[in-house]
Structure formats: C-alpha cells, structure tokens
Specification:
Strand content: 5-15%
Order of helices and strands: EEHHHEEH
Number of strands: 4
Pfam family, one: Myb_DNA-bind_3
Helix content: 55-70%
Organism: Acer saccharum (Sugar maple)
Protein name: Myb/SANT-like domain-containing protein
Shape: elongated
Length: 125
C-alpha cells in the first residue's frame, strides 16, 4: 500500500473482507457524507440509520464496490482521527501553506523540528 491507499478489515480482528481505500474512493465517501449531513441525516454526532443506509447504497452505486456499513464506519472513524491529528498539528498556526505537489504542509524546517520535538515528548511520556 502507498500513502494514498489503505485497507481495513471488517470488525476488529475478524478475517472478513478488506476494504481497499484509494484517494478517489475516500473523496467519493467524503462527498457523500457531506450530502447526508446537509440532508439532516447526522443531527448530532452520528449518522442516522437512514444516513448510513444512504451512504452504503450511494457509495456502492458510485464506486462499483460492495462495502457494508461496518467498512464505511471504520473509514469514517479513521478519517475523523486523521482530522483530529491535523487539527492538533496545525491548530492556530500561521504562516503555513499547502504543497499540492507533495500533498503535505508547507512549513519551515524550524516549524517541523518544533512539532517533532513535541511529538517525541508526548510519545515517550
């Protein structure tokens, strides 16, 4: 797998089928999630049953895949954790950019060094 592809098993520790997520599938999933939120199928912190049913049906129809709710929920949880990490990393920082070619944060070496020092302190605590 490269950095734009990942896989997730159905359920924790199960030997079920794996969902293969490329960048196009993730983008489709995110767009569909946005539509469900806009239609009111995520009134608080979770999608409703109708929302999940729509996501499964529309994702599979659009991509030609046959993923179930558990596989989509696993991807949702992974993306949510990635977003939290992104939010914590960038936070209220200024002077950062986005390198579209490398698809990463465009920041000075000094900034990266400071962030890595914080990460090392957190992981060794």
């Amino acid at each position: 797998m490269n950095k734009f592809t990942s896989s997730e098993s159905v359920g924790s520790g199960s030997r079920g089928s794996k969902a293969i997520w490329d960048s196009q599938s993730v983008e489709i999933f995110c767009d569909l999630c946005i539509k469900e939120v806009e239609q009111g199928h995520r009134p608080r912190t979770h999608f409703t049953k109708v929302g999940w049913d729509n996501l499964v049906k529309n994702f599979n129809k659009t991509t030609g895949k046959e993923y179930n709710k558990v596989q989509l929920k696993n991807r949702w949880d992974t993306l949510k954790n990635d977003w939290k990490l992104w939010r914590d990393l960038v936070g209220k920082e200024t002077g950062l950019g986005w390198n579209a070619k490398l698809k990463n944060i465009d920041a000075s070496e000094k900034w990266w060094h400071r962030k890595l020092q914080v990460c090392m302190v957190v992981t060794t605590s």
